[in-house]
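User: Can you predict the 3D structure for this chain?
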Amino acid sequence: MTPAFDSPSRPTVLLDPQAITIRRDRHRGVKVRLHDGTTAYRVRLVEAFPVTRRRRFIILCDRDGQEIGILEDPKLLDPESAEVVRTALDRSYFLSRVTAIHRIEERYGTATWHVTTDRGPRVFEVRSRSESVWWLGASRILIKDAHGNRYEIPNLDTLDPRSRTLAELHI
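Assistant: Here is the predicted structure, written as structure tokens:
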């Protein structure tokens, strides 16, 4: 482990993927064994750049929320550790892709979306467009619902005309 930069409080540490192991503990939580032999339990994995650099620069935090370090590329871990990281991130960053929009109902500033996703039909609420809808390019849209779930429209132009019109009216 080498410090990425000096900080008056606690330096950020880049973790050597060859010197750590990441496993599931008996309670299905994530545990990390560091090169010095210490083990951290109930570790939380956070993508530093979940939209622009998915699966790169993973921040590992202990059960108290203190940063353990940053893993630059989980693909360099041993296969079992890499799988634990992938599964944990998939669970944390659940993302459905919207394939059709059936209707959007607005009431008192809240929009209720009735959609079909790559995981089946969904109904979700968006409370604030300005804080919950982001354009990620010319036609890619990310939507965060009232419960923190994320939905992506990978390409607005590929939706059917009715879905595209509904999206454009409510985004």
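The chain has two domains: 2-92, 95-170. The first helix runs from residue 79 to 92.
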